[in-house]
Q: What sequence folds into this?
């Protein structure tokens, strides 16, 4: 996950260089006499990874605009906390100061996308960011045993 503008700009440069590499790789495979199917099969891992990078860039651009996806059953809460921080233009250092923890701790938490975060800690982060999350409960009868 892209966590700041520096990483975002690096990712944009990476995508640009990957575009050139992908074309060179494709041309090289064609020159070797591979069939279209063989070329596509050989290129699949590179193209898949490139697509993941594009999705990360698109996600970062969305959160910078304040566009967030719904959280279901708290899945993605950590990613949303990071996104909120980014959207508000708050650095990891500033968040660390608000929470009275080290910047390294915030960096570690975000690198792990707050995996295993307690609700109390999530609430402290939300409070430090000055944000309130709201939820909607949906009853799904077929899930009840």
A:
């Amino acid at each position: 996950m892209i966590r700041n503008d520096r990483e975002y700009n690096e990712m944009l440069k990476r995508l640009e260089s990957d575009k050139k590499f992908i074309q060179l790789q494709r041309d090289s495979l064609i020159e070797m006499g591979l069939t279209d199917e063989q070329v596509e099969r050989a290129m699949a891992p590179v193209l898949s990874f490139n697509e993941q990078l594009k999705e990360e860039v698109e996600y970062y651009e969305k959160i910078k605009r304040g566009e967030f996806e719904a959280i279901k059953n708290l899945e993605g809460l950590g990613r949303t906390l990071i996104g909120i921080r980014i959207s508000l233009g708050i650095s990891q250092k500033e968040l660390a100061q608000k929470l009275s923890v080290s910047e390294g701790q915030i960096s570690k938490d975000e690198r792990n996308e707050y995996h295993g975060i307690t609700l109390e800690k999530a609430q402290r982060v939300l409070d430090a960011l000055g944000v309130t999350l709201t939820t909607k409960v949906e009853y799904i009868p077929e899930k009840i045993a």
Summary: The chain has a mean pLDDT of 92. Residues 15 and 54 are 7 Å apart (CA to CA). Residues 77-129 form one domain.
